Amino acid sequence: xxxxxxxxxxxxxxNILLALSVYCPMVTGQLSIGNAGFMAIGAxxxxxxxxxxxxxxxxxxxxxxxxxxxxxxxxxxxxxRLKGIFLAMATLAxxxxxxxxxxxxxxxxxxxxxxxRGIGSDPISVFWIWGWVIFFLIFLHFLSRSRMGLAMxxxxxxxxxxxxxxxxxxxxxxxxxxxxxxxxxVGGGLFAHYYLYIEPEFFNVWKSIxxxxxxxxxxxxxxxxxxxxAAIFTLLPEFTRILHDWRGAFFGLVIIVLMIxxxxxxxxxxxxxxxxxxxxxxGAKP
Amino acid sequence: xxxTPILSLKDVDxxxxxxxxxxxxxxQVFAGQICGLIGPNGAGKTTVFNLITGVYPCEAGAIHLSNxxxxxxKPHRITRLGVARTFQTIRLFANLTTWEHLLIAQSFLTRAxxxxxxxxxxxxxxxxxxxxxxxxxxxxLWEDRQRKAVTLPYGSQRKVEIARALATxxxxxxxxxxxxxxxxxxxxxxxxxxxxxHAQKQNMAILVIDHDMDFVMQICEYIFVxxxxxxxxxxxxxxxxxxxxxxxxxLGKEE
Lengths: 286, 255
Hints:
heterodimer, A: mainly alpha, 12 helices, B: alpha/beta, Rossmann fold, 6-stranded mixed β-sheet, 4-stranded antiparallel β-sheet, 10 helices, 10 strands, 38% helix, globular
């Protein structure tokens, strides 16, 4: 396999993680356009730990995931009071705060606006990235077939009724937000150690919007949708190189057409019945 | 009736801005009773349900469930203590099947932390599923268990709401206009089902809101009448039917 192909596969893995980071809050009905902020936190923390403290990558990534997750929980609290477009604005602002922080502070450690150079000498292998992807996918697989996963979907559909069914929606929503932030943090750490260079500009609003698009295009009620969305956004631009200058326009057109024909995303939950909690009522008769 | 009531409201108040929705309401419901809460439009019936279930905080007064005060507790806490309800306008989860509605309603009964929820306790899961199955059969929803609840006919959707409420193992079941929008046959069916539920869960109290006088008179053994947020009277169906104040509230005063 050529470096070109490995590059695409690695980018795909990172994009899947970023999509999943948006999927987690989204499945409880929370739209976050600030996940590039959590990604930046993860990227900078991992890089600082490995470069300045010479920490091995694995504990550095775990630390980044935990710190990003905790910050996610803290952001999740005020987010409870906001809905829809207002939550989107607030999270967008959070992402910008993080980007500006790394632009203007900690410059001796991170290079500030000049960028963080020399993160290791070789990019991490594609297995590092896909190992984490598989880890989170297995986790989400079990989550989505548990009652807790169903409770998340219920919260997405109707918060008041979910609460009246005995679900602690505050904990559920904050938890989902934190989990998403944590996944974004790990994704950011892997990103830093694959490209070996990061700068605050990488983590701007566009990055966050792309993550949201992955999920909306792929289908937001099953984590398979996040995989699908990330795959389309990563692979389609590569496959359409022959279109030259028309590539960007074609891609935009694909998004519009998909939104018209599949408004709830390419993959919906019904397609994955086997994946969800099958009422395992073997031999049971009413 | 000398035992402690399952539900008791004492001098409960609720205002919306300047509007008094519920004014010094006192009510008691006992185990095993089917009670009705009736009154003209805008009398504050649904508000009472929202106060009991914690959707709205009370401004004054106290609500007790058995001996426990639940005044202004969080809705999910109150549900966990044994109050379940249905809604005047059907509120089902748009993306979930009938079966999943019941699984969600039972989720707090698994009594477990995050880890246990991800890798469930098999024995308990088995019990809960058997229970869910029983509820679905009781309400004739078994055949529809794998269908998205919102795609079912109207009458069945109402039944899914009741099934979901029952799955939380309530001590008190609140039904908010269960017969609203139903045709004669569906209403008949519903009466039959409520009777079946009542027969099977002897200790559960049921409080029903409805406009349909015939319906309420048929199933309730005790009735509270509300008008403009004030309880104008309470009593057995026979007594209520004779009551002048009730006629006045529904039909207006004779000049």
